[in-house]
Amino acid sequence: MSPLSSTGETQALASDHLREGIIDRLRSEIGDALVDSHLVPGRDVWVRVRTDAWRTAGIALRDRLGMDYFCFLSAIDWMPSPFGKGEDDPTAEPAERDDTIRQGYTGGETRFQLLARVVSSSQHIGVNIKADVPDSMVMESWLPVYAGANWHEREAWEMFGISFAGHPDLRNMYLPTDFEGHPMRKDFPLLARIVKPWPGIADVEPMPGGGDDEEGGE
Amino acid sequence: MTALLASIPYWGQSLLRALGGAVAVLLPAGTIVYVFLFKLMSFMQSRLGPMEAGPFGSLQLFAEVGKWLQKEDLYPNRADRFLFKAAPLVVLLSTFMLVVAVPFGPDAIFSNFENGVLYVLAVSSISVIGILMAGWASANKYSLLGGLRAAGQLIAYELPMVLAVVGVVIQAETMNLQTIVVKQNSGSIFGWDGIGNPYILTQLVGFLVFMIAVQAELTQAPFDMPIAESELVAGYMTEYSGFRFLIFFIAEFATAGVFSLIASTMFLGGWGLPWSWFGWETLDEVHNSMNVIGPVIMVTKMMLVAFLIMWARFSYPRFREDQLQKFAWKFLIPVALLNIAVTSILKVAI
Amino acid sequence: MTMTDERRQLSYIAAQAADARVNVELETEGMTLNIGPQHPATHGTLRIIARLDGEQVVWAEPSAGYMHRGYEKLTEVRTFPQVTALINRIDWLGSFANEVPFILAAEQLMEIEAPPRAQHIRTILFELSRIANVGLFLGDLGVQLGAITPVFLAFRDREYVLNLIEAATGGRFHPNFDRIGGLKDDLPKGWVEDTKAAMHKLRNFCDEMEDLLFGNEIFQSRTRGIGIIPKEVALQYGLSGANLRASGVDWDLRRDQTLPMAWNKADWKVWTHPDGDCFARCWVRLQEVRESTKIVDQLCDSIPSGPVMAKVPRIIKVPEGEAWVSTENPLGEMGYYVVSKGDLGPFRVKIRSASFNNISITPWLLKGVLVPDIITILASLYFILGDIDR
Prior knowledge:
Chain A is α/β, with parallel strands linked by helices. Chain A has helices at 6-30, 54-63, 149-160, 191-195, and strands spanning 34-40, 44-49, 69-77, 112-119, 126-132, 138-140, 163-165. Chain A has one domain (7-195): Beta Polymerase, domain 2, CATH 3.30.460. Chain B is mainly α.
């Protein structure tokens, strides 16, 4: 990684202090509800909070750390997809796949994790905040913290099945009301690929009038 | 001319009048549609407009008429059948009734009303009923919104139109449209009769108020809330297709043409050229050829006024409904009243 | 009481009862109007369900999803280069701008950087896509309000920009030109001169728009004081781009972030407006287009020479990690949260699109406005359906 210039380097170091300061202040606000953190100097900072402190952490971020801009709220399903990339031959045996759930930065214990990002409009520093979603799939709603979380939580409900306690109107965002299933879960197959598996290489039509220069590769 | 006409039996005269009326309504409509809507608007928007049908797209109008005629005649399921079918006819009816009073020449006039101005203003309101009928009978919320907006707007702008014209009536001392034309062409401005006395010079404020009110009566932009295309799709005309829509379309531009005719009659001197150029004194002295040249002059003046209407249409965004009403009630009507006051004072004083 | 009095009283009571019955029958509880999904004013298939009381909105709720294509799911079965072709189509008016944050995120994870020439050209194409996108907005603004002429001028002048993009990338609307590590190709010969000529024409276009539309009294009375969004509400909802700057927030990701792009090599200004109404949003966008033409001019003068592609392996495998990159797209802040597991393709991509947040404010904003103002407000917030629905 080559920084653009020496000022870039000092800027990266300076952001270090800013971002480290964010972690420290958050820790001082919510104590041991801050389970883990990850810092990429000059780039970004991730924190993970305990499940029951999701809303408290949000309030602390908004009021004490000056994170007034709500960027997004979503979720990650850490289970590897049992369908792979949808390239399996349907007539063959289902392939053996590694199905261990490995979380990313800041670790975690559950399959689903909520992911949100909030930014400070004055310092232009943002925080990615994660929290484990318990098996009951119920989390506290961020609606009292950021009004914009309304639609994002509806989308998370629709796509992952995570319901938010305290959200007045949790219904589907994009899909019809009677849609069954939660599409972004890894065990919900991408139906287009089930119907016709992707051969994995580009389909090239042979030239009309014979032509055996079928080229594969992407 | 009158001698010629007297030799034709009455039914022949009526037939001639009917045909003449049809031409007097449809010819301005067609001309305005082609010259202004197709060509002028295109040039103002840096494009060419229709070029395919006929040389420079001149036959586009016939193509359009043919297209509309061959469309399926739909009506919504829950529409009030009779009102739905009658609404376009009512709107077109008012246009035909309007053109009856307009003088085209010293004798070329369908009916020489003594209260021509009053008749014209009264009859122009019939189209409001037609629009309301269309909006209600379409059984469509958008149409209803459009119809209600139209009702409010058209009624509000009747008043400025009437008040603007009162200034002309005061100055001409008559409501007879033919006499108004005569007065303009034979009159003089402070003794100089080089161009007659077209009332646009003395009644400029009245002319402007009249043009704005006409723009609103025609539901043209900036007053086209009833047909606000980006909100209500087509307002009260949404559910119409085929021949019925064609009637609305023709009625819109025919009414524009006829109002331009009326404006040129009352403000620009109508069918005449200043009589001082020919040495005529009274209406009887006017040469018979003016019966043929008169309509041509009328069409020219109509095109000038219609150009103003269309130019404003292509340039301005539209008013919101309440801004529209405020503009009518709080600005136009006081200005028109002031115009009447000043005119009457000057008429008595001078 | 005499018989007549009694009869009179009875008839009076009967009349009152009849009146009451009529009133109950006519008791309308407001009309529910569907604006969309097929409607000339919504930029695509957005449906707004409005409960009206006369012409005033009691509540209004946008119902998105008519164009949901499931992009986040689709990215999980694609390789990293294939995702570029997919995300072009999120905001289809300024499509080069969609590719850039994703490519930058992948490059961050791979810890490579595109060569300076590629960064420069990326920035120029990014700004060109901004001009194309917002140029259409200016024309479209007129149509929403009833002025039918500016949109033709907008389309005519946008053609210059689209021709430039096509000359460089091969596609007018979906260039698919960015690659991890650089660009697909170098610029054609003579492109720089053409671009500068086009920027001159676009500056004239901006002046024309300002004359034709912004100076018009009717336009001003239709947009001033309508749809005011206070600063705090805008931040809470995550409004971004010109919408945020028009509420007085000094926020521009091109200036406030250090990304490997060339914005800091040009001298330009961030425009804000304190009012937060429709006029402010439209005005800020107009100034931004002007500013973009200046950026393109300056950058065209100083393109460094060199390769346009860094040394990347032929089969791209992005190492394990998570990255977030967002850029100041024409519509607002667009960002990608890329989770990679060291595979050929991403594990999860969260697409943060600007219009999703921009439109989420409409239930709050549209309470109590008139029906024509709904259209004005939506026009000034400026969304693209592909951006809302992904």
